[in-house]
Design a protein that fits this description.
single chain, alpha/beta, Glycerol-3-phosphate (1)-acyltransferase, six-stranded mixed sheet, two-stranded parallel sheet, 10 helices, 48% helix, globular
Length: 300
């Protein structure tokens, strides 16, 4: 424990450990990616196993420096029943970039490492794009409404491309993650949206609907996560400095309604309204839960 050190010094040490962890494991990952490129089923299986465990090792090492700079008190509930051998769609309220590290910290080796749907263009980001590809993050190609109006022949092609990308998960468990709000909560965004929720932005149902359309039959369930920081919303530098004292996280596993699988959110208006209503109810329940969390774990 380094809590006797000044917070900025802890932040510098944690930053160096994070950078070292990333450089070392990405270097190993890129070597394994060369093996993955070989056209042999056996070597590809071995490479996939190594990559998944490298991903988990990166998260475990991050947990190490997080524990080193601060012994955070974790208040967790609802984790029972999650299985490493199943596929899940995970979603959460979004307050800070710290949310991702929190989810990785808690869920590491409980379920498969979290993967995010990424825009196809991001594969060209130097170093990180290659790491995402090597780790099997699904890349999607989405067309804007304006583009589809000019090129109607492309309608449905984005989903078709994503389905092909997700086909590799058919026989392998996976954890797919999506922030339904689409962006981090701030008071300014909350006011601009005129959000009907006290602690949440308006949910964007299209993202989850897109995942269910692409791979709903492969998913065991939806894991609905609610995160609360009694010390206030932390920034990433706060986490590095060890200033996050308490984290409250509740997990709720939800069966995916069968009527929402295999439907096209963009083209089926009736389904779109039903799905939006379902997501809005989830958000109403989440807002009520956050109200309860604020009472039980008030701002420090």
């Amino acid at each position: 424990m380094l809590d006797f050190l000044p917070a900025p010094l802890r932040g510098v040490i944690a930053s160096l450990l994070l950078a070292l962890n990333t450089i070392l494991l990405c270097s190993f990952l890129f070597c394994v990616a060369l093996v993955k490129a070989l056209p042999f089923a056996f070597t590809q299986r071995i490479a996939g196993w190594l990559m998944s465990h490298t991903h988990e090792a990166w998260i475990s090492n991050n947990k190490g420096w997080m524990n080193l700079v601060r012994r955070t008190r974790w208040h967790l509930s609802g984790l029972q029943g999650l299985d490493y051998q199943h596929s899940y769609l995970i979603t959460s309220n979004h307050q800070s970039w710290v949310d991702i590290l929190v989810l990785q910290y808690v869920l590491n080796r409980r379920i498969q490492p979290l993967k995010f749907f990424l825009k196809q263009e991001l594969i060209w980001v130097p170093v990180i794009g290659l790491a995402w590809w090597a780790l099997g993050f699904p890349f999607m190609k989405r067309y804007s409404k304006a583009y589809l109006a000019k090129h109607p022949e492309k309608k449905g092609k984005d989903l078709e491309t994503t389905r092909k990308t997700c086909a590799k998960f058919r026989n392998n468990p996976v954890g797919i993650f999506n922030f339904v709000e689409g962006t981090r909560f701030t008071e300014g965004k909350h006011a601009q949206q005129q959000s009907p929720f006290k602690y949440l932005l308006k949910p964007k149902a299209g993202g989850i609907a897109f995942v269910l359309d692409a791979m709903g039959e492969q998913l065991e369930s939806i894991v609905n996560v609610t995160i609360h920081y009694p010390g206030g919303r932390p920034g990433f530098w706060d986490l590095l400095c060890g200033n996050v004292r308490d984290v409250v996280v509740h997990f709720e596993e939800l069966k995916i309604p069968q009527q929402f699988i295999g439907k096209n959110y963009d083209q089926d208006g009736e389904y779109r309204l039903q799905f939006q209503g379902w997501i809005n109810q989830l958000w109403l329940d989440k807002d009520a839960l956050l109200e309860q969390m604020h009472r039980e774990y008030p701002t420090q």
